[in-house]
């Protein structure tokens, strides 16, 4: 009877078929032995999560005991905790050392005639992750207690989300209602929903959150002052119980706006001192505060450029203030000229991040991390990978994804983004020769970064189902899972999510899996073609407007004319962006012959009659994909309809309604795009479907 959906933490429920795994583990699930350590809040969270999860999954409240009385049970323990024989006897020292604080072991163990499932954390936090893994295991096929032996540790140090929530309760690029954090310029008093969000995040291993929009307006500027810090501290307390560290987005001009100094010049001692004081205040309220997230000199936000300083000057000033406390500066690289003259093809927005930051390599303090969007533009359905990854050997880097579907259907369309993110992570930058993949760079494994990781713009709001579209929950879930282990496949992640969220019915599972896996290519097929991007309604970014941004200042052009389309980013005749890549990658994109079809128009301007590797002309490709995309959505609707009797009415109806909306929108896209290019090119569709 809560007023929010439990997402993948529903643990069964009346309409859900139980996984066979529950039966296999049944004998162990009535007793939990939580020995010794049980004092830390995180340990308590772990015990509580396991207790509640098992109660729901089995229908019986498990007994929680300090000592092993029953013959079979689940034992919880923390490595290095006060001598727990159940743990110490079955975990070797060397093994424990490899786990790190966030890792855990789940294994079948035996001692003194007793038989148990051991969940052992590298710390209480690792234990909590182990508990969530065990609960997941009980809901997904393929595992039995025999031979159970899992040793897990996360790939990334920082596994974060960024809320783009504003204190008036709105969410920038939010498609799932209002903020769960703020209302009427205040932090909400009832943090129930925030706690529930912390559970969702911790269950997939997220360990950091920035709780306010990177565009910091007047009210949010005050979040770092004693006026609002008591409330920030309340939020931090909730997240701490789930092992999640709190960060704040800050306004670079805060010293001026809060009336401390007349300048925000990072080299001015009074400004430096001002930030040191504010930082000291913050740590008085939140002792484990994570640090500052900063959008500076970007889209009209203040920054060091105003004072003739560069980004290293700006970031280092904040880093110095945070350093005594171990805090970090997450400095965003989304810096470009948003007032450009569209006629000047040399100001290529795609080049901007690399051009701004690469020359600064080596100048940042080691508690600064550059936060780089996955692509050089802005979360389009298809972009190449940002060439900045790996280009700075002496500067910490982290990757920024966007879970909120700003440019991918705004949680009205299904668009499962894990396959897209996997492509980014698997991209080989060649920065240190073959095998210099993005996934390893942002793990600090190519260059030995002190700090690194992945973050993403969150997708949640106060909608009943959190994400606007039930199926969009899979992106939040999958994001966390991918950060824990980027080797998981998109299918595996989708399967896990589906069985936890919708149960193990085969028809349900296979339909949802297919829809999710087909969804990104489908969205791409009926929107902007061949990597060119944009063509969306300005500002809102939903629905087609081919020339919406074509003659504007934002640097997002397609250059379609009567003869052809695409952006020439080659070295010889274009912007030279292709040569921000290393060696063979630069050559791959630079040459028309080798450039992959899906990115062709990102790198090249070609005639409509240019023949793709697929054998089709560009124009016919545009026509065909736009028809195919709509047909695909029609097929999903038929498949979804077939699930009516197997799903709860509420979720069935909700997804159905969204699919119908997606269909309408896909038709709109198809017709606008196809007609536009027919009129521009005058070339007919081979199948005569496109009308003038
Ligand atoms: C774009 C959004 C804009 C954000 C900006 C950013 O349209 O609302 O403020 O990115 O990342 O995607 O700062």
TrEMBL record:
Substrates-to-products reaction catalysed: Hydrolysis of (1->2)-alpha-D-(4-O-methyl)glucuronosyl links in the main chain of hardwood xylans
InterPro entries attached to this UniProt entry: A-glucoronidase_C_sf, GH, Glyco_hydro_67_aGlcAse, Glyco_hydro_67_aGlcAse_N, Glyco_hydro_67_C, Glyco_hydro_67_cat, Hex-like_dom2
Q: Where is the active site?
A: 299, 378, 406
The EC number of this protein is 3.2.1.131
State the UniProt keywords alphabetically.
Answer: Carbohydrate metabolism, Glycosidase, Hydrolase, Polysaccharide degradation, Xylan degradation
Q: Which organism is it from?
A: Paenibacillus woosongensis
Q: Where in the numbering of this chain does the Alpha glucuronidase N-terminal domain appear? A: 7-134
Glycosyl hydrolase family 67 catalytic domain residues are 142-466
Which is an annotated Pfam family here?
Glyco_hydro_67N
- What sequence ranges are listed for the domain Glycosyl hydrolase family 67 C-terminal? 467-689
Q: What is this protein called?
A: Xylan alpha-1,2-glucuronidase
Do the record's keywords include RNA-binding? no
Q: Name one GO molecular function term.
A: alpha-glucuronidase activity
Q: In terms of domain of life, where is this protein from?
A: Bacteria
Q: Name one GO cellular component term.
A: extracellular region
EC class (word): hydrolase
């Amino acid at each position: 009877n809560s007023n929010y959906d439990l997402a993948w933490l529903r643990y069964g429920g009346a309409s859900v078929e139980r996984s066979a795994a529950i039966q296999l583990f049944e004998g162990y699930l009535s007793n939990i032995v939580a020995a010794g350590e049980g004092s830390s809040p995180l340990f308590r969270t772990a015990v509580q999560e396991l207790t509640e999860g098992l109660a729901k999954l089995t229908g019986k409240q498990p007994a929680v005991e300090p000592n092993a009385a029953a013959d079979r049970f689940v034992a919880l323990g923390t490595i290095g905790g006060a001598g727990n024989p159940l743990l110490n006897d079955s975990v070797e020292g060397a093994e424990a050392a490899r786990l790190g604080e966030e890792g855990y072991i789940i294994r079948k163990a035996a001692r003194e005639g007793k038989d148990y499932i051991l969940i052992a954390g590298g710390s209480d936090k690792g234990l909590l992750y182990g508990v969530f893994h065990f609960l997941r295991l009980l809901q997904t096929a393929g595992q039995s207690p025999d031979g159970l032996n899992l040793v897990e540790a996360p790939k990334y140090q920082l596994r974060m989300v960024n809320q783009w929530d504003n204190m008036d309760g709105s969410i920038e690029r939010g498609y799932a209602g209002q903020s769960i954090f703020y209302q009427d310029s205040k932090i909400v008093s009832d943090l129930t929903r925030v706690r529930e969000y912390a559970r969702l995040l911790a269950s997939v291993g997220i360990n950091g959150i920035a709780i306010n929009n990177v565009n910091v307006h007047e009210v949010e500027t005050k979040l770092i002052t004693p006026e609002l810090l008591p409330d920030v501290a309340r939020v931090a307390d909730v997240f701490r119980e789930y092992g999640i560290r709190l960060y704040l987005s800050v306004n670079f001009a805060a010293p001026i706006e809060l009336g401390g100094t007349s300048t925000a010049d990072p080299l001015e001692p009074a400004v430096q001192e001002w930030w040191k004081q504010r930082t000291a205040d913050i740590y008085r309220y939140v002792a484990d505060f994570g640090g500052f997230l900063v959008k500076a000199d970007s889209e009209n936000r203040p920054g060091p450029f105003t004072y003739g300083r560069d980004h290293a000057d700006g970031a280092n000033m904040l880093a110095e203030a945070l350093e005594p406390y171990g805090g970090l500066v997450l400095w965003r690289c989304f810096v470009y000229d948003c007032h450009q003259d569209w006629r000047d093809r040399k100001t290529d927005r795609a080049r901007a991040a690399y051009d701004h930051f690469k020359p600064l390599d080596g100048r940042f303090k080691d508690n600064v991390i550059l936060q780089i969007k996955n692509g050089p533009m802005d979360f389009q359905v298809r972009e190449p990978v940002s060439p900045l990854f790996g280009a700075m050997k002496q500067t910490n880097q982290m990757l920024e994804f966007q879970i909120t579907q700003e440019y991918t259907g705004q949680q009205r369309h299904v668009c499962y983004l894990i396959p897209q993110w996997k492509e980014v992570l698997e991209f080989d930058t060649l920065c240190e020769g073959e095998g210099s993949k993005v996934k390893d760079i942002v793990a600090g494994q190519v260059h030995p970064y002190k700090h690194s990781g992945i973050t993403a713009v969150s997708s949640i709001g106060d909608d009943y189902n959190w994400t606007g579209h039930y199926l969009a929950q899979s992106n939040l879930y999958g994001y966390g899972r991918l950060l824990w282990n980027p080797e998981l496949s998109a299918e595996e992640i989708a399967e896990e999510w589906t069985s936890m969220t919708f149960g193990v019915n085969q028809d349900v599972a296979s339909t949802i899996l297919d829809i999710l896996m087909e969804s990104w290519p489908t969205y791409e097929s009926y929107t902007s073609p061949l990597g060119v991007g944009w063509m969306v309604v300005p500002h809102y970014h939903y629905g087609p407007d081919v020339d919406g941004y074509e003659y504007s200042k934002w640097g997002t052009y397609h250059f379609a004319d009567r003869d052809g389309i695409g952006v020439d980013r080659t070295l010889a005749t274009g912007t030279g962006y292709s040569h921000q890549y290393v060696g063979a990658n630069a050559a791959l994109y630079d040459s028309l012959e080798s450039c992959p079809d899906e990115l062709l128009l990102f790198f090249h301007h070609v005639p409509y009659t240019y023949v793709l590797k697929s054998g089709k002309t560009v124009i016919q490709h545009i026509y065909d994909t736009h028809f195919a995309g709509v047909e695909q959505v029609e097929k999903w609707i038929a498949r979804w309809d077939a699930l009516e009797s197997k799903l709860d009415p509420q979720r069935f109806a909700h997804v159905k309604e969204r699919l119908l909306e997606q269909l309408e929108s896909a038709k709109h896209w198809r017709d606008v795009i196809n007609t536009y290019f027919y009129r521009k090119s005058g070339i007919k569709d081979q199948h005569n479907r496109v009308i003038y």
